[in-house]
Design a protein that fits this description.
Structural class: alpha+beta
Shape: globular
Oligomer: single chain
Strand order of the largest sheet: 4-3-2-5
Largest sheet: 4 strands, mixed
Low-confidence stretches: none
Helix content: 40-55%
Mean pLDDT: 96
Strand content: 5-15%
Number of helices: 12
């Protein structure tokens, strides 16, 4: 079990009031780039909601869906929902690596968490490496899939180190990416694109997300149709980027298995 101590935010963000209103019980944590204030237009909204053990299942489900809608109306390209766990279950098995929330902020609830183990990361790494291979063979033509692809690249280094028993945050692992592969420059290219990324906004998309009971059933389909890759971003992607990215992913798996 790992004990994690978090801080309250010393800054304001437009999402915080709505998130607090949506999750009325338990502990709500924001982590990732929104929490450490390195957010760009590319950034996901990373949430961990720890709910009371006695909370009715219907309330858990409805709160998860409402939190998801808040996220998706802010970032139409988000490809994952909030991480959730009960107060007891998170002490047994964490839904995410404890180091992922190292720099998180607590909007409500406990600032000291006891978190159980996560996997060694290799199973998730294998899935991401296979996903990178699949999209490298048929490069995406929409922003949703491009963002997913780049997000996998950014996550692969920390999973590679974790599989070797070295627990690093995502930025810490990216800083050491040259240890993983000679194809490390794909991370530099992706990072440059991340800085230039403009988060798309669509009233039609937001309305559809608001009206549907389960937004995760429609978000990827809508996003793939509605949001094409802008020429500015397309021009930043070298012709050999996809092949090099696949090479990086394969090297990362070999690095994990050394």
């Amino acid at each position: 079990m790992v004990r994690v101590k978090l801080k309250r935010p010393d800054f304001e963000h437009q999402l915080f009031p709505e998130l607090l209103k949506t999750a009325g019980a338990g502990t709500l944590i924001v982590f990732g780039s929104v929490a450490d204030r390195t957010e760009t237009g590319f950034s996901d909204v990373d949430l961990l909601w720890i709910y009371p053990d006695d909370l009715p299942k219907r309330y858990i489900t409805s709160t998860y869906m409402r939190l998801s809608k808040v996220i998706l109306k802010y970032d139409h390209l988000q490809h994952h929902g909030p991480f959730i766990a009960s107060e007891t279950s998170i002490k047994v098995k964490s839904p995410l690596p404890p180091e992922a929330i190292k720099n998180g902020v607590v909007l409500r609830g406990k600032s000291i968490l006891e978190m159980g183990g996560w996997s060694d990361g290799r199973d998730v790494l294998v899935r991401l490496v296979n996903s990178v291979k699949r999209l490298s063979d048929s490069p995406p033509n929409n922003l949703y899939d491009l963002k997913s692809f780049m997000s996998w690249l950014f996550l692969i280094p920390t999973l590679s180190f974790r599989a070797r028993g070295v627990y690093l945050t995502k930025p810490e692992a990216i800083y050491r990416v040259r240890e993983i592969s000679d194809h490390w420059h794909v991370i530099e290219i992706a990072s440059d694109i991340r800085k230039k990324w403009i988060r798309p906004r669509s009233l039609l998309f937001s309305t559809a997300i608001t009206l549907t009971p389960n937004p995760w059933r429609i978000n990827n389909h809508l996003a793939r149709i509605m949001f094409r890759i802008p020429e500015q971003i397309r021009g930043m992607i070298p012709d050999d980027f996809w092949e090099e990215a696949n090479g990086f992913a394969q090297d990362a798996l070999r690095f994990a298995d050394r």
